[in-house]
Amino acid sequence: MNDHVSLRGEGPQISLLGTTGLVFEAPGAFDLGNQQRIWGMADALGSWAEVREAVPGMTNLTILFEQPPHDFRAFRDRLTSLWASGISKTVAGRTIDLPIVYGGTGGPHLLEVAELTGLSVDEVVSIHSAPVYTVYAVGSHAGYCYLGGLDPRLFVPRRAVPLLSIPAGSLSIAGAQTGVSASAGPSGWHTIGSAEVTFFDPARNPPSLLGPGDSIRFLPEKVVS
Amino acid sequence: MIEVLSNSALATIQDGGRHGYYRDGVSRSGAMDGVAVAVGNALLGNDRDAAGIEIPMLPFSVRFDTGLDIALTGADCAAHLDDVALQPDWAIRVHASQVLKLSAPKSGCRAYLCVGGGVDVPTVLGSRSTQLREGFGGHEGRMLQKGDRLAARRTESVLPEGGMGAMPVAALMPELGQGANVTVRVLPAAEYELFRPEAHDALWSGDWAVTPQSNRAGYRLAGPELQLITPIELRSHGVVPGVIQVPPGGQPIIQLADAATMGGYPKIGTVIEADLWRLAQARPGEKLNFQQVSYEDALAARHELDRCLASIEAMAMRVRAAAKGWSR
Known about the structure:
By secondary structure, chain A is of the alpha+beta class. Chain A is 20% helix and 32% strand. Chain A has 4 helices and 13 strands. The longest helix of chain A has 14 residues, at 32-45. By secondary structure, chain B is an alpha+beta fold. In chain B, a hairpin with a 3-residue loop joins strand 14 and strand 15.
């Protein structure tokens, strides 16, 4: 019966997105080592005939089919073998500094996050701005960077009902993730601050400011509580 | 040129979609009803993915200031060229100063105006589609407004005198479900098994109303609450048009052409590619039913739709070739 998805267990999980593509989820931790294996796989998959695009996610990979494979099981086995080969890619990326106004009208959920985590607003800000975050993946909307490295003390669930729109430059967090919106749009995350930056320009090549392996450092410019 | 006479919101230029930039976070965009645009293009002898105008809010009208081949497909919106009624799924030569008026549709909710060679706007990142969120592609990266002037990429006519039409695709494709609801086929997705058994029953047997909070990015549905056995937080991963996400509130959202390329809400299923055109014509207030299919069924449906479009293209080509013979 359950052929659309491989069983949950020790190995990677592979599940279909209709006939458009599939999601490959790496087993194990949400860390840079696993993410580098995802980047390695994405590069290798670029030469597979069935693959239009292999798109890194957060320790997962989405394949968009050029042609959906007739034999999905065989395709799934080839993917699992590629993962098992241990292929990996390291990126010598660059780091940008991003001034942030935490809280206020640009960060309406800062207080809520403080309550959810049991921390003070100042603690949330200092914990959030401490790490240098690695860009794990670009996606959601054009130029948006998914960042790894959020301190577990700031892990909060996504909002129960997504908001219809948050502005460009919004700094938000959810689960083990944080990021800055590249353009206005809907969001299910908690918005805790704002920045002024252009992450995407279709006239630029490549159009995205940052790619997987680059890094962002958040500099608290102001905290409004 | 085509001059837009209506300030009717939400009309955009769309083609077969922007492919190859998912890793930059660029959503697919493209026509919501890709079949309607493909049929329009078939009648006009265009590439299947040539750019047309997607018109979701009617009435809408345009004036032509040159002779032009046009095709009207998608929702049947009682179109009139000056005072003459036009059939749905029909292509015809229009002349300078004629006005085309579309009225509120009897059924469906998106009409497509295709033109000879496709709408002439610059190709940006491989497509002429309007990328609404980021504001590029299409005509100045935005919805059309009154006074906008658009050119076609071909002005000479390829159509027979009096025009030509196609059978509605709905009549050529299998009829799904019964009654007034719109039925689409769904393949279970990664988190399907993590939902409660009641949620499975509700998914397959429930009536799912398309709410007014529905647009090119996605349809928010109202129906029974779909609950997980235990709450989970997923790592963000790729999402494609057709994916049915279920936020913790329990009311599903079907991701569509302008949806985010990545998301993290649990996915209970995916509306198959071959039925996205049916969704595109479901209007707010209408109800959806979901019919479970296997991957093999979904592949077969994809081939069936492709064969159907190919046969329309071949038929249209024969009619145009014959008409060319008559006029010699």
